[in-house]
């Protein structure tokens, strides 16, 4: 009834200077009718039984992959730097585990920070559509928070998994508020925008906050969101995920202490930007109550992409396309590809400035370079973790190939992870032209990694830092996560 | 991409600027800013939002500790000290405002003081003053990169955008980072910028300043450890430019020249007389003048005579709040501030208490208010005006207009009034020795050998019972 009344009144407000008295109050929707309130309600009311078997299955795969890339990420320089920073600035605090470092624990938010940095340090973590890296922003915070909870009331595996899924779901819902979010980003790095919100939502769920506190957690998190794309492809990029994780946790903790923020943060209010500040177009929708039959988790409809090698998602298309050319070349003669054979390499890829780098200078840049990944795959038949070592980046053969690359942006190749393709066309010295094209790389949500492949990736990653016993325990524990009575069995295997 | 070297020039400037380049004018103005910031910060340590943040921050332990203003026996890790002290400064919206619009000092001073307490070698007052001015200057420069910044904001809350950059610059200066590290500090800080305006007029707004202070400090610390970001962060539209719809950066030249011009030299800040959004100051001065006119003519001021109150203000949604329900909303309401002024003939710190906000007489008066946004009244702190018109039941009309309130940069607070503002507020927290000590140290900051003495004055509380919050909550 109030909404109908609003519809009548609204056009009249267009003429400024009208007598606005107590009727003014009706201009604001009743608190329960806002988009923000619907999100707060959802987070506080959702229960384990709302998770379908498909969502449980898919999210467990995400948890496993995320832990694995986090573990291998703990071997990187940027992780070391972040860890040292935390240890120098703060005293040891025996609470939350750090990935892969036996005996090292930090305050919960700091553990979330460094583990988040580890997860994104090699750009090896999962990618969703619309584009973001959802798990790295959420899992470290949920783990850290679980470590923080008293020993006699740790969450069950199912509670843990529920909180994780809430964090993913909220991110998915927020990204659907704008068209801008559906394309490869240009302004704000999506994990820094929706990741913080997802982490706040997940932690609010785990803390069992009431619906009002859940809303405020989101609003507080909004004031901690947002980092520019220019820092992608630099050493600072992993901090976007680390910060998303810790600041979302922080927002939930502050909300639990009663801190309040805007009750309209997700709604579109003309002249005062809330979460809409991060988008050029923004049309928010309320989220349905979980007890209504109407709600389905987005993960049910839209699966996750997992990476086969540690680089920006776009690289996987050109790598697969180039690998198929490599196969043909190797079929012709000796087992390796020589730059001397190659006259010219043409890449047909979508237009996206931050992944178009002809001569990457660092491992971070190499992970964000169509040219580099195409040439690596052309030379070696595949791209792996080892393709980004300093020695590999500086190989003369690779540099020779790089100097022969041209890039085109066909009209029909949009900068969108759901619709793009990668084409590699190699002109040989002899005159032959070989072409490879990839529409859907193996690991994309349309062509998901099998459980075998996913576990193989996990074992390779986790095996870099953990003894094989712990590696296998983790595989088992995550598989059984929804049946686990106490998530300590998971928490104890991470270092 | 054509490297314009803008970020590089900023890094070079932060590194190279030295105290001989500080002019008398800049020193005088920045000392006033520091004093005012400490005063409102001290007062702010008695607010609800400060105490929530303090309790939260006490979860963290560290070996290095920094002072919490107004607390004799609580210290925090420097990062969290910067956080809570920054929150205190902005907790009542009582801190300084610049043009283009931001609250520059609250993002910088808490970070610097927290940092200075942890540095192995003594930080002189002059070092502090220089770093402070570097933090202010960088903010001023960045805001001049877009037209959007010149108007009252609509999207991002400016302190969250430029404040964190200023804090990073100032901290980098105090840490003595190399030019390249200074650039990277800015780049890392850029990834911590940007909070939406919707959280203004809520309890979370003060965190925008607290976060700017702490995250800028952290950015500088990470840069010192070798973390790198995008070395062209200021040059790129997809860098710092993401926070603006129009973005036209330019380099910071002449940073080694003796002719270097500080923005603060040409553009002063405004200090507030009322703990409320800057826009409220115009409407309050206009309301008081209109009230005086009515009182002069009618002989006395009788509320019941008033039929309508019309406010003519610039368009700005987030300070147009007809019936505020909280102190935060009240501080961001043209209507509330006009009516408080009419009712009480003044607006002070206590005007925003829950009891005062919920007064029946006030609510009745509020119901008689209408707001107009005349064409030509621009939403810019440099150009706006406010007009208040009172219409009585007898059919009489009394109008008053305020173009420049007392405290605005065009009509600055006298030194006496500024010190008085500080004293009154600091005295509610510190003992006399502390109050006078701060005034003395800041007054002579450029000659002070070791600025840690400031920290000890800021902890000289008058009331032993503020230990209420000193126990650690796990």
UniProtKB/TrEMBL annotation, chain A:
One of its GO terms (cellular component) is mitochondrion. Its EC number is 4.1.1.6. Gene3D superfamilies: 2-methylcitrate dehydratase PrpD. It is found in: Mitochondrion. Its main location: mitochondrion. Cis-aconitate decarboxylase that catalyzes production of itaconate and is involved in the inhibition of the inflammatory response. Acts as a negative regulator of the Toll-like receptors (TLRs)-mediated inflammatory innate response by stimulating the tumor necrosis factor alpha-induced protein TNFAIP3 expression via reactive oxygen species (ROS) in LPS-tolerized macrophages. Residues 309-482 form the MmgE/PrpD C-terminal domain. GO terms for molecular function: aconitate decarboxylase activity; protein homodimerization activity. It comes from Dicentrarchus labrax. It catalyses: cis-aconitate + H(+) = itaconate + CO2. Residues 39-274 form the MmgE/PrpD N-terminal domain. Belongs to the PrpD family. Pfam families: MmgE_PrpD_C (PF19305), MmgE_PrpD_N (PF03972). It is an enzyme of class 4 (lyase). InterPro entries: MmgE/PrpD_sf, MmgE/PrpD_sf_1, MmgE/PrpD_sf_2, MmgE_PrpD, MmgE_PrpD_C, MmgE_PrpD_N. Homodimer. This is Cis-aconitate decarboxylase. GO terms for biological process: inflammatory response to wounding; innate immune response; positive regulation of antimicrobial humoral response; tolerance induction to lipopolysaccharide. SUPFAM superfamilies: 2-methylcitrate dehydratase PrpD. Keywords: Antimicrobial, Immunity, Inflammatory response, Innate immunity, Lyase, Mitochondrion.
From TrEMBL, chain B:
InterPro entries: MmgE/PrpD_sf (IPR036148), MmgE/PrpD_sf_1 (IPR042183), MmgE/PrpD_sf_2 (IPR042188), MmgE_PrpD (IPR005656), MmgE_PrpD_C (IPR045337), MmgE_PrpD_N (IPR045336). GO terms for cellular component: mitochondrion. Pfam families: MmgE_PrpD_C, MmgE_PrpD_N. GO terms for molecular function: aconitate decarboxylase activity; protein homodimerization activity. It catalyses: cis-aconitate + H(+) = itaconate + CO2. It is found in: Mitochondrion. GO terms for biological process: defense response to bacterium; inflammatory response; innate immune response; positive regulation of antimicrobial humoral response; regulation of reactive oxygen species biosynthetic process; tolerance induction to lipopolysaccharide. Gene3D superfamilies: 2-methylcitrate dehydratase PrpD (1.10.4100.10). Keywords: Antimicrobial, Immunity, Inflammatory response, Innate immunity, Lyase, Mitochondrion. Homodimer. PANTHER family: 2-METHYLCITRATE DEHYDRATASE-RELATED (PTHR16943), CIS-ACONITATE DECARBOXYLASE (PTHR16943:SF11). This is Cis-aconitate decarboxylase. The gene is acod1.
